[in-house]
Amino acid sequence: MTATSALTGIVHLTERSPDLSGAEMVAALTPPPQFATASFESYRADADFPSQQEAKDLLVRFAGGGAPAPRGGLFRRPKREPALKPGVYLDGGFGVGKTHLLAAVYHAMPARRKYFGSFIEYTALVGALGYKNTVDLFRGSDLLCIDEFELDDPGDTMVMTRLLGELVATGTRLAATSNTPPNALGEGRFAAQDFLREIHAMAESFQTIRIDGTDYRHRAVDGHAVVLSGEAYAEAVDEAKSATLVSDDDFGMLVSHLARVHPSRYIRLLDGVGVIGLRDVAPFEDQSAALRFVAFIDRVYDAQIPIRATGDALDLVFPDEMLSGGYRKKYLRAISRLVASTLA
Prior knowledge:
Keywords: ATP-binding, Cell cycle, Cell division, Nucleotide-binding. GO terms for molecular function: ATP binding; ATP hydrolysis activity. It comes from Microbacterium thalassium. This protein is an alpha/beta fold. The protein contains 13 helices and nine strands. It folds into two domains: about 10-20 and about 220-344, Rossmann fold (3-Layer(aba) Sandwich); about 45-210, P-loop containing nucleotide triphosphate hydrolases (Rossmann fold, 3-Layer(aba) Sandwich). The strands form two sheets. The protein has a five-stranded parallel beta sheet, with helices on both faces. Helix 4 crosses helix 5, helix 5 (about 130-140) runs parallel beside helix 6 (about 155-170) and helix 11 packs across helix 13.
């Protein structure tokens, strides 16, 4: 997890070549900073979308924090709550509080060994330690929280589902989230079914929880990120560098640099950085580069680092042909986060 540093001045991310050991990757499997104190009490369910409160109530039970079922009267049988499955899968759109609820589960569950990470962090750990060592590491753990479970890489998906299958068989409980764009109602249910189909033998172990609602940030996904002129950008960087460490990079050069850094190490690129500066933003032409940038922005958003940029609006860097393809959900999630980061 990126720690805030007292460093000030200018740094270039393109000059950083971070390394990350397996032990450090494991130590980082905790909720990101903005969810470090997330709780069920601090989750504000929208009354216009009852599924939010329903999801919260079920997850309170899942985490072991629910009140016992009321006892029956003299001639009444006590009310019995249905048994919970060992895994829950939160399926919903952007900004409805899935990650908040996932972190609340993590904090509330009285577990000795528990982990919280994004899908890419877990797959990176398998890549770093090997499958068997990763299974041995997590065997006996009480809880694994997986944020933003991905379905677009069959290899990684099957590795993860095999890993989770082995862990569930030995008593580990699981909680996972997915993303559904707000303008694609119904896609989330298909994603959930795809997920359950991928984990075939584990399907009965998961309870899918649909969470409806609108983005809590109250910003449309197709809203525009803030763009600064060259002069305004220079002023913003100059003002910020006296209070924090500011990264100042050419957009194209940074995108090229990301290809030379494993996504599991992107978080280390951001060590100590308080503001990110990107010059001459331009649309992507290569999908691999675009997907690496999405992974980078996920880490930027987790660390709650504001972005200042020139050139094209950051929400317009993904061309229509990319937005209409199989990675649509990833790109829309990134757009939502880019808009929020430039307004921070």
